Amino acid sequence: MKLWVLRHGEAVPHGSRPHDSERELTDNGRKEVLKIAAELMGQPLTGIYASPYLRAQQTAHLVRDALGFEPEIRTVEWLTPDTEPDKVAEQMVAVSNVLLVSHNPLVGNLLSYLQHGAGHPPERVSTAGLAELKGEELLVGSMKLDSIKHP
């Protein structure tokens, strides 16, 4: 099985909108996402899950459009920035070959958790950074980080 985890593209700074969840992608952020979307071309993607936050939704839609991916994006509350990685792992037990679009600190914490289990430092992932994990099945501490690509 494969799992891709994508951090949203560059977003407008805190304070320019009333709430963090309403921050949108910058022009540079859109370019970052389109550049990294090319890494997913030809991959066996079966679904896209995204945080409900605006910048993650915009990122997911840009990727979906760039890939010509037909299925709808699944918006889920368990991909917001402060969700604990174990909560995400619980949701992912029955799926494979999906893309998760989320935020730090969750992205870095989730990548570390799936590779090593709890208690390890988070992986460093830039905006629009795309990580690919592989494993026989999604077991905490048993996934192998195949790559982290940055735009």
UniProtKB/TrEMBL annotation:
The UniProt keywords, alphabetically, are: Hydrolase
Cite the CDD domains for this sequence.
HP_PGM_like (cd07067)
* Gene3D superfamilies named in the record: Phosphoglycerate mutase-like
Q: Name one GO cellular component term.
A: cytoplasm
| InterPro entries attached to this UniProt entry | His_Pase_superF_clade-1, His_PPase_superfam, SixA
- What's the Enzyme Commission number for this chain? 3.1.3.-
Q: Return the broad EC class.
A: hydrolase
* SUPFAM superfamilies in the cross-refs: Phosphoglycerate mutase-like (SSF53254)
> What protein is this chain from?
Phosphohistidine phosphatase SixA
User: Organism, per UniProt?
Assistant: Pseudomonas fluorescens
Q: Which gene encodes it?
A: sixA
